[in-house]
Design a protein that fits this description.
This protein is of the alpha+beta class. The chain is 27% helix and 12% strand.
């Protein structure tokens, strides 16, 4: 258990991220506020299924709506997401 984080309550329940999910989560570790990228390292949009799965597991949460691109899902890491990205969860 990470200090102050109940991973079961946060939705992790023994779930392990796929390599794609873990890579996406790790990219938020060094960003201000844990902001997660909209695009991968090759400039392609991150798969919305990857984003939704991370939200469903409690590893990411929607941050805000982009008024210019309302279909973009801007997210940030949760405490459980930080633990999973670091390999602690």
């Amino acid at each position: 258990m990470v200090e102050g984080v109940d991973l079961v309550q946060a939705g992790a329940r023994g779930q392990r991220p796929t390599p794609e999910q873990r890579d996406w989560l790790r990219r938020g570790l060094d960003q201000p506020g844990g902001k997660l990228p909209l695009f991968d390292r090759y400039g392609q949009s991150v798969n919305p299924r990857t984003i939704r799965a991370c939200i469903d597991h409690g590893w990411a949460e929607p941050w805000f709506t982009n008024p210019l691109k309302p279909d973009w899902l801007v997210c940030k890491l949760t405490a459980a997401g930080r633990a999973v990205a670091k390999g602690e969860g």
